[in-house]
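Board notes (copied after class):
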Amino acid sequence: MGWIKRNLFFVVGGILALGLLGGAGFFIYTGWARNSEMSDKLNEIYGKLAELAQAPVQPGNDKIDNKKIAQEQEKQVRDWIDRANDYFRPIPPVPAGSVTSKTYATALGTTVYQLQQEAKDDSVVLPPEYYFSFQVQNNKLTISSASLDPLAAQLGEVKAIAEILYAARINALDGIQRVRVSDDDLQGLQSDYIDERPTTNELAILTPYVVTFRSFTPELARVISGFATSPNSFIIKSINVQPAGAATTAPAPEAGAYPGAYGPGGPMMGRGRGEGMPVPPPEQQPQPMAGRGGLQTVLKEQLLRITIEVEIVKLLPKS
């Protein structure tokens, strides 16, 4: 008894340890019993499934019509496929149908001019004499017939991408880069291309593009929404955002734009005015005094230079 009094903490700790060991043993036993029960039920289900798989197909009985159920399930699957196809509409090539050097050259000139005019109407600044990554084709009199179909597909895809950017009201488009699909592309500007190739799996072809533009965060949100809601399947792989001032030298603005056209008082404020009318620069606002209390500025919007890597999903023809 005296030993217990001298080692009271040790005795109490030993009793608690034995109690915990007993509780742990009971928990392990109940868990093992539950696992064993579930394992028996799972084996029973597997056995029944194997039995059904080996049994001959039955049309059913007066209560269950297996044939009708199978037809309804097939219809549900086909309806789901049809609804999913609405999100994988192919982008029509430009020009459509049979393509020759002459028809492609005509379509290229028309499309580039159209995109340049749309950019002007939407107050989107473009690099000088920008051909949307097709400058080398614009300078060619003849193009290899083997390259015409891929180039027509790319021209349609670049047009679709540019129109999404215009609809988002970005401030400036710095460039659209595509993969090389012809021998002529090897002689083109490096800034027009990316060193990647389309990838193909058992379902589709994934064609990458890289888009660089300048805007504020609301326009960036509209660009992402435009890609997400497009009837053509776009997958955004990456987004790189940095202040526009940290980027490389910006291209010269078009005629009629003032040097500060990229700021909050730039093209966004000048939309809807007559063509060729100069837009006055924003007035200099007085700088707030610091350190006198009151509300502090926690977020100051600034122009961003954004680079988006996007892939176009083109479903393979059904075999």
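Comment from the instructor: Residues 101-269+302-315 form a domain with the Alpha-Beta Plaits fold (CATH 3.30.70.60). Residues 8-54 form the longest helix (47 residues).
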